[in-house]
Amino acid sequence: EVQVVESGGGLVQPGGSLRLSCAASGFTFSSYWMNWVRQAPGKGLEWVANINTDGSQKDHVDSVKGRFTISRDNAKRSVYLQMNSLRGEDTAVYYCARIDNGPVDIWGPGTMVTVSS
Amino acid sequence: DIVMTQSPLSLPVTPGEPASISCRSSQSLLYSDGYTYLHWYLHRSGQSPQLLIYLASNRASGVPDRFSGSWSGTDFTLKISRVDAEDVGVYYCMQTLQTPVTFGQGTKVEIK
User: Fold this and answer.
1) Which of A28, A31, B14, B77 has its CB surrounded by the most CB atoms within 10 Å?
2) Nearest to B92 among A44, A95, A99 (CB)
3) Residues in a beta bridge with B46
């Protein structure tokens, strides 16, 4: 079965750090771009970052640039999101998602990140 | 950044009746490969978003044929020919022509 599963969410204080992981299975992970998308409570979907197949190209939404970093390890079939200097507005469900020639076609169940003191 | 504007934001529907959601992009989503990088998703409460339509008019695998996508220029439409109770949730359009990838605000579909 083609799937991605996130882990690493939790409660963190403002200014703290968290590293999200996403484990992929059922497909040739190294052939696909990967993304992180989030949804804050009561809000819509927001793209956070993406990374190309070998990790040489990355992009992040402006609101997280300099604080979050996407990376991947093809040998481990995993993509990561290192989140530093966390703020209350980063509180959200974070989804790992695969891009397949245009659309994001596979989404994980999501992991909740709560930034609060 | 490409701005995606959906309407309506709320859509009460009657089972068995048709429904339509609009999405407008602030610039063309047509790429040099001839494809239009606009996609539609349904996000049911407590679940992950589900791909319905990709590249403006292609139904994703397993999606009922009552869902269809069309477009004219920068105006996109998702149509449900006959709404079913399982179609409730929030519908999003999304562009992947360029980063930042952007979504519409979402259209909440609920049964009357």
Assistant:
1) B77
2) A44
3) none
Query: For residue B80, what pLDDT band results from cuts at 50, 70 and 90?
Result: very high
Output the DSSP codes for A8-65. Answer: --EEE-TT--EEEEEEEESS-GGGS-EEEEEE-TTS-EEEEEEE-TTSS-EEE-GGGT
The stretch A14-31 carries a mean pLDDT of 98
Q: Is A46 on the interface with B (CB under 8 A)?
A: yes
Report pLDDT for B56. Answer: 97
Each residue of A48-97: pLDDT tens digit? 999 999 999 999 999 999 999 999 999 999 999 999 999 999 999 999 99
Q: Which residues contact B86 (CB under 8 A, 6 or more apart)?
A: none
Residue A61 φ/ψ region, left for φ over 0, alpha for ψ in the -120 to 50 degree band, beta for the rest: beta
Burial of A100 (C-beta count, 10 Å sphere; 0-12/13-18/19+): middle
